[in-house]
Amino acid sequence: MTRPIGVPLVILALASLLAIGLSVAIGSVALTLTDLGAVLFGDAPALHRTLVLELRLPRTLAAFATGGLLAVAGALMQVLLRNPLADPYVLGLSGGAAVGALLAMLAGLGGLLVSGSAFAGALLSTLMVFGLAHGTGSWTPSRLLLTGVVVAAGWGAVITLMLSISPARELPGMLYWLMGDVSYARTPWPGLVLLTLICLVVIPLGRSLNVLARGPLQAAALGISVRPMEWLIYLLASLLTATAVTMAGSIGFVGLVVPHMLRLVLGNDQRLILPACAFAGGTLLVLADTLARVVIAPEQLPVGVITALLGVPTFLYLLYRSR
Question: Which residues cross the membrane (predicted)?
Fold first, then answer.
């Protein structure tokens, strides 16, 4: 890897490690670097080991995986739709996942069954959008975008109906899930493994993605198989988004703001942008989750609230800068 590409990634990787360490150390029981070192080397008290290894570290890694998944999905969606303001939720994936999860909650299910239902809902939404946008001909980015907006609006209506008829005792958990919450994500490893695998898959395709971002005609003229590449990008972005929603619920603005900010700083080389999104998105969500845990301690805020409060002014500023 050349120096211009490697240096930003090293900086972002160090920032990620710093954010993870900060998240693990901060909480109702503050831990020092000495305490964390003792936990890593097995010399810590049982309380500290339980606090770090069973509570804080899984949650922190889940937040990092979720943020990285959303940011990489956002970068892929922006290449697919050739729109720097595209978002991984724009095609209704989060709406389908939310409906699946809420149905599982209403049925009295929990744990992995809720996650599985959310994943099934996201995949169903993917098939619906792709099928409706294709119709009897071929889909275009604008047609795919419009279809996704309509499907997302339909899922929103279904969610509102479900909340209206749900028993009062079920509403707090359902609303918390809809706002985005990583406090129940205790198995971060599938998300981390998927994030790593996707980055390893798409980085070799970075040159082709750079060409595709300039338009299908130029890509076809330069020997790129446009349609299979677009299918691959869409399926990968859908898988990333569905996994993120399954882990932590609906968390907005990460997939929109992170790729856009990185492009302003690092340029448009997808070989750099995609791994940078994995680090930067994960770091952003780890810091947001840390803030959500401590800002009104001992109560906790949904991390989706923090990302929205940070994302809205940031997005408006970026929009103003790029007008």
Answer: 61-81, 88-106, 112-132, 144-168, 188-210, 231-253, 303-320
Structure tokens at 323: 């007008």
* 198-254 per-position pLDDT tens digit: 888 888 888 888 888 877 777 787 778 888 888 888 888 888 888 888 788 888 889
111: left (phi over 0), alpha (psi -120 to 50) or beta: left
Q: How far is CA 112 from the centre of its chain?
A: 19
The secondary structure of 188-208 as a DSSP string is: -HHHHHHHHHHHHHHGGGHHH
Dist CA 232 CA 80 (whole Å): 10
* Token reading at 72: 């990489």
List, in sequence order, the alpha helices (H) in the chain.
Answer: 3-25, 33-40, 46-49, 57-81, 93-106, 112-134, 141-165, 171-179, 189-202, 206-212, 216-221, 226-248, 254-266, 270-294, 303-321
CATH superfamily for domain 3-321: ABC transporter involved in vitamin B12 uptake, BtuC (1.10.3470.10)
CA atoms of 89 and 237, how far apart (whole Å) = 10
Separation CA 46–CA 79 (nearest Å):
48
Amino acid making up residue 94: S
Dist. CA 142–CA 137, nearest whole Å: 14
Q: Determine the Cα angle at 119 with ends 152 and 165, to 5°.
A: 60
Whole-prediction pTM value? 0.86
